[in-house]
Amino acid sequence: MKIICSKDYIDMSKKAAAVIAAEVIQKPDLALGLATGSTPEGIYANLIKWNKEGILDFSQIKTWNLDEYCGLGKTNPQSYWHFMQEKLFKHINIKQRNVHMLNGVNPNAEQECSNYEKSISKNGGIDLQLLGLGHDGHIGFNEPTNDFPSVTHQARLEESTIIANSRFFGSKESVPKYAYTMGIGTIMMARKILLVVSGTDKAETLKNVLEGPVCPEVPGSILQFHSNVVVVADCDALNKISFESK
Ligand code: F6R
Prior knowledge:
Elements: E1 2-6, H1 9-26, E2 31-34, H2 41-52, E3 62-65, E4 67-69, H3 80-87, E5 99-100, H4 109-122, E6 128-131, E7 153-156, H5 159-165, E8 178-181, H6 184-188, E9 192-197, H7 203-211, E10 229-234
Parallel strand pairs: 1-10, 2-3, 2-6, 3-5, 6-9, 9-10
Antiparallel strand pairs: 4-8, 7-8
The structure holds fructose -6-phosphate (F6R).
């Protein structure tokens, strides 16, 4: 595991975007796993900038997003579909047919999740998966439980996640209780993983993820078992990590 310490959120966003850019340049038809939430926003801004400057070409890139809220369709401004269009896709030269996202309004969870899993494996798997980290240690919407859910599935959101995400919805009550998400196994199959973390409020969680025991109570801790993980985090998020790990 490589840990890259950046001085602040802006620096973290640039460095993490540079990790993605290097992969895109080396493999123009890269299969890229993407995340939503606040943390990747700065990364996407850099990717947009470099695309506009002609440094990055997304015309052959294929993407698969980690998750989507159940019950929210493409036109809903809170859907992850909408987030990704606004924050990245509509500003770069990606082809919409190469964008893959879980359909939150398909009521048939089993069908939706197994089709998503098949679409990833039919493509040959994900080359680089971008991940944010939840305060409770979740990656994707894989919340702390007593096992590691392996494939794409419907997950029930933890109260703490609902509270954290209510900032996007105006109220806690408006946050959907369920989401479709790639499983831990789906994420671990990616050939390379880029975990991005910012802020003192995530420092304790990041310490547990990187230095604690690998356990389903801290879903992100599974990343210790992946052979190709890059963590790009700011000093605030890394302030509880021992010197040796850094
Ligand atoms: C988003 C996702 C979540 C977020 C996590 C951190 O697609 O899968 O795991 O990465 O909740 O969110 P932020 O970045 O908003 O703190």
